[in-house]
Amino acid sequence: MTETLNVPASASTDPQPDPSGADAKPAKGRSLWTDAWQDLRRNPMFVISAVLIVLLLTMVAFPGLFTSASPTVGDLTHHYQGEPRYTHFFGEDWFGYDTQGRSVWARMVHGARASVLVGVLVTLSVTLVGGIVGLVAGYFGGWLDSVLSRITDIFQGIPFLLGAMVVLTTFTKSNLWVVIAALLFLGWTQIARVARGSVITVKQSDYVHAAKSLGASTVRIMFRHIVPNALAPVVVVATTALGGYIAAEATLSYLGIGLAAPAVSWGVDVSNGKDALRTAPHILISPAVMVSLTVLAFIMLGDAVRNALDPKSR
Questions:
Q1: What is the mean pLDDT of the segment spanning 291-306?
Q2: Is 312 exposed, middle or buried (0-12, 13-18, 19+ CB in 10 A)?
Q3: Where are the alpha helices (H) located in the chain, listed in sequence order?
Q4: Residue 309 has pLDDT above 90, yes or no
């Protein structure tokens, strides 16, 4: 007697999964910057700071979108220390008039360009100079690292604002580029120390040793493998420091050794408003608030970027 084994049709016709996973699609790799961007998009601190910075940059690039008034033309007859009209949004008299009869709001809008330009250009300059010094010192080590580290220590031992004041007083006239040079002269040390430490850490990685074993050149190793992976701490410090450089420009201009009239900047307006603080406090308070909001926005942005790039915070 013969038994017939009934096999379901689906068992013989359906394809069986490959246990080796050969047919599976490879997962797309995610980098540190991709993960950081995903975290930043969900961070309210980043969103708020980014909106403020975008508005500020729009004001710098297109001041005509915010006011049609001139920041340099005043009317002493009718507008001497005119009171603010806070209900006249974006109007010429929104934040009143200064001691020269000029619109405070117009000067706030147009003054953003000089203040932000100083902050951005100084940040880019110190990041470039400090990054190169830190890269060379951290990668090559030895006597070169010792020499560059001692030079960095000497410059870092000089008080930042006091040193900038000394540098600026050596010039007969200060302009935008002189202020940038003075802040760069003493501001690169922090970036250099951060970059050096980051490069030393990355230099000990296995992929760097593998690149050396394969005969990769020094330049390729430095700019292909080390710089991209050592960049995160430098970006965090530079982002946070940008607001500090804007505040430094305002402080130097307030002391009368930074930007000066006829330049239009927040620091110049704060300096002009100090003499009328009792009679017309809005002349000083309005640009001072703009400086504070700008510095706060960049500090918040730096904190958000630091939390996103720090694996320990996940």
A1: 90
A2: exposed
A3: 9-13, 32-41, 44-61, 76-79, 104-140, 142-156, 160-169, 176-187, 189-203, 206-213, 218-220, 227-254, 266-273, 282-309
A4: no
Q: CB-based contacts of 57: which residues, under 8 Å, 6+ apart?
A: 116
Query: Which residue, chain included where needed, has tokens 């980043």?
Result: 46
Residue, of 2 and 61, whose pLDDT is higher: 61
Q: Is the pLDDT of residue 15 over 80?
A: no
Collapsing DSSP states into helix, strand and coil, what is residue 166?
A: helix
Token duo for residue 186: 């003493």
Dump pLDDT digits (tens) for 119-148. Answer: 999 999 999 999 999 999 999 988 999 999
CA atoms of 183 and 265, how far apart (whole Å): 17
Buried b (16+ CB within 10 A) or exposed e, 33-58: eeebeebbeebeebeebbebbeebee
Encode pLDDT of 215-243 as tens digits. Answer: 888 888 888 889 888 888 898 899 889 98
Q: How far apart are CA 159 and CA 274, in angstroms?
A: 25
Q: Residue 61 has which token pair?
A: 């690039």
Strand partners, 97: 103
